[in-house]
Amino acid sequence: MTEPQKLTTADGIPIADNQNSLTAGPRGPVLMQDFHLMEKLAHFNRERIPERVVHAKGAAAFGTFTVTNDITRYSKAKLFSEIGKKTEVLLRFSTVGGEKGSADAERDPRGFAIKFYTEEGNWDITGNNTPIFFIRDPLKFPDFIHTQKRNPQTNCKDHNARWDFWSLSPESLHQVTILFSDRGIPKTYRHMDGFGSHTFSLINDQGDTLSESLRERVWCKFHFKTLQGHQTLTEQESAKLKGEDPDHATHDLFEAIAQGDYPKWRMCIQVMSEEQAAKHPDNPFDLTKVWKHSDYPLIEVGILELNRNPENYFAQVEQAAFSPSAVVPGVSFSPDKMLQARIMSYPDAQRYRLGGNYQQLPVNQPKCPVMHYQRDGFMALGNNGGSTPNYEPNSAESTPKQNPAYAEPPMHLGDVAADRYDHRQGNDDYTQAGNLYRLMTPEQQERLAQNIVGSLSQARQDIQMRQLCHFFRADVSYGRRVAEGLGISIDPSMLPAIAQPVSI
Q: Are both 183 and 329 inside the same structural domain?
């Protein structure tokens, strides 16, 4: 028997495991050092141009989301802050596997992607019309989608490929069962449910202080229940529509809204505490599984209504960019491996498809002020930040600054927690620099000081003074030499305190 060829990366590095991502523990999250995963996803995002790699065929409309029930006990997101509050939305429907010219009546999951234009930024939910998916590990995503596309030799759809993959991937059985059931072909986009599919987290804020104890995280799943009722197509009806009107669902959505028959969905959530998740019989972050409604009942949040058609398909639908990385304060992520990878993969796909400044396109532009340090690149609109600094931290006044009030509580992952740890806390950044200075001869020390003076003298005096503090903390002589070169007089009584090797 012929031995199989050795699987490698594009750099020729042998691959030991092409089934499982590198994760922090069995329930994730995925680690950035998994170069094989990153290469597969990044390359996958660049395999089609210019249409979307998946969800290429779609239709969309604008509308509003109206809060009908108070869930502030779970989330501090301002769009949920009061009953009756309205938020503008864009909802894009799609088939998953087909190209832009494919038929709407295919037996295929339907994309259900929502952009909420909130006062705290854009929040995207990039879900489907099913609560689950075919795979649970993102390392298999490019492979799976390849089976749904065209055979590399015949350029035709390949039933061998899809069933070969499914038969070798038992985790797909739940979604396959849905896909080939009566629910597999929705009659229209209006007559189907939508789901966030992944497990997300909601974060509340029970006080005005920054105390972590006042912030609580719960796990959450999002559901959008159609108020038009469920309608589906049989295989025979689907075949007839594909020949007679391949754009039937696109027509239906546009015409219904144009006639004032606005489609609506009831948005609900399921909520699971961290304690419940730890005791759950299976992994609550597994995208191939649901949470039982009997254990975690639906909680109504509001009504989503579509009431305005796009004016220009390319500008408002084709250029619309959705990513699960777009979350607002009060909504966040989970250890769901597929979600973790999509947080990277989706915006990467949009940068490839639309450019590095895709958020500046009108359909993607937030309704709230945007303040950051990103500059340049293709299609940098406006004044490109003007004369303000393009780096941070900086000393300029009235520039964007971080705000600890928006910090999330740590995400506990067994013996470790995902958090933003202060890399300066507990670190001595001065002793080794001082030791290096003390290894130099007096002549070398003098040349070092003069080289620094030649550059630092061109900076503002407030910057000079701040930097001198660092030199003195490393070594008093080091600081004195530079200060003398700058013509700055230092009070000798301050030197012992300044010289202490402590972080600032």
A: yes
In a domain, 470, yes or no: yes
Catalytic residues: 55, 128
pLDDT of residue 405: 85
User: 269, 110, 125, 246: which is closest to 191 by C-alpha?
Assistant: 110
Please count the structural domains in the chain: 2
Sorting pLDDT into bands at 50, 70 and 90, what band is 484?
very high
Average pLDDT for 162-187: 97
- Domain of residue 465 covers 431-498
Place of tokens 């590990």: 137
Q: Report whether pLDDT(332) > 90.
A: yes
Helices (H), 245-370: 248-258, 274-279, 313, 337-354
Shared-domain flag, residues 345 and 471: no
Q: Per-residue pLDDT tens for 14-36?
A: 888 888 998 898 887 898 888 88
Domain closes at, from 309, 342, 364: 364
Question: How high is the pLDDT of residue 48?
Answer: 54
Residues 358 and 438 in one domain: no
* Binding-site residues from annotation: 346
Contacts 24+ apart (CB under 8 A), 439-447: 445/477, 445/478, 445/481, 446/481
The set of long-range contacts for 93-96, using a CB threshold of 8 Å and a minimum separation of 24, is 93/58, 93/59, 93/60, 93/189, 93/249, 93/253, 94/55, 94/56, 94/57, 94/58, 94/59, 95/55, 95/57, 95/58, 96/54, 96/55, 96/128, 96/148
- Give the residues across from 299 on adjacent strands: 269
Contact between 354 and 348 under an 8 Å Cβ cutoff? The reply is no
Residue 293 token pair: 């409604």
pLDDT digits (tens, 9 = 90+) for 54-69: 999 999 999 999 999 9
**Contact at 8 Å (CB) between 219 and 336?**
no
pLDDT at 500 over 50: no
Cα atoms in the 13 Å half-sphere on the side-chain side of 339: 29
pLDDT at 414: 85
Q: Binding site for heme: residue ranges?
A: 346
In terms of phi and psi (left: phi > 0; alpha: psi -120 to 50; beta: otherwise), the region of 83 is beta
Burial class of 502 by CB neighbour count within 10 A (0 to 12, 13 to 18, 19+): exposed
8 — pLDDT class (breaks 50, 70, 90): confident
Alpha-helix residue ranges (DSSP H) falling in 82-221: 141-148, 159-167, 173-179
The H or E element spanning position 184 is none
